[in-house]
Known about the structure:
The longest helix is centred in the middle third of the chain and has 27 residues, at about 215-245. This protein has helices at about 5-15, 15-35, 40-65, 70-90, 95-115, 120-135, 140, 145, 170-195, 195-205, 205-210, 215-245, 255-265, 270-295, 300-320, 325-335, and strands at about 150-155, 245. The protein has a two-stranded antiparallel sheet. By secondary structure, it is mostly helical.
Amino acid sequence: MTTATRAQAVLRRSTLARSLAWVVLAGVVLLILSDAVSAYNDLQLATGAYYFAVLAGLTVLAGQSGQISLGHGALMAVGAYTAALLIGNEGWALVPAIAAAVVITALVGVPVGVAASRLRGPYLAGATLAFAVGLPALADKFPSLFGGENGLTINPPVPPSFLGASFPLERWEAWIAGAGALVVLFALHNITSGGIGRAWRAVRDDEIAASLCGLAVGSTQALAFIVSAGCAGLAGALLAVVLQLAQPGAFPLQLSLSLLTGVVLGGLGSLVGAIWGALLLTMLPNWTNDLAHSFSLSTRVSANLPLAIYGVVLIAAMIVWPSGIQGGVRALGHRIRRPRPAGINQPAGSG
């Protein structure tokens, strides 16, 4: 057996090895992209990375465990404000502050996840929607702690000295956000491919059957929400680091709606679908702004244009690709690889 054959056999057998291979490949691609593009595009890359972190957690929650959440924008706010408080006020280093933001947001997700496990359908969506509306308003209630409408500012992350004095800040921010996205990719790929992922899917497909098989339905659903909340907290912390700011205006209700739209468009339950969703959430505002300027639309119309385009794109995607963009790509790949039956396209009379 050759070395390449042995490596392929290891990748087929080991989920951990496959996850590590995907992370290494994605990391190499991110490094090449960040070095090849402009400073503005590095910021776009960082934006796409923290959007992927929250969308990956949300697509696992909705696609794997069957729970719909409209409150992930608020969970991002928890992570952002935690990181801003620890870095800006307490002087914590970057990595411990981001890790603490993940833990604290996951802890906030515990009571929400327990409550969500007792709700179904529109009641679950309504409860998380109320969470998204109410939590960011706390910044106005405690301005001395959270900075009110102006929010909290933090100093930009300083690139390490070994990278050189002229190393672009935007590229460093893209690397930080990209590293966070890779951590999420590695963790969620291993979780969803193992026993926990199978339990989530069993509960999603049939709660009664899963309960009869010995699964604790409520605990399983609550765990999915907590994991997803931790991913949202990481995304919020990365957002605060990239923008050097955490303020209520960054986490409106529209953000939570856009996140859910992104996972539906990308493909529920698919980590690759989260990449498509992150790409849409990053690029679509720029496209809509360009469209608004090209047609000289009013400020009110241009402000609401992204939501209108999200709706149109969502309707079109559901008609063309009911399982999202990744589902459409997968179906197209199966169609291309499908062998043609014998006798098709043969010249007349050849038989």
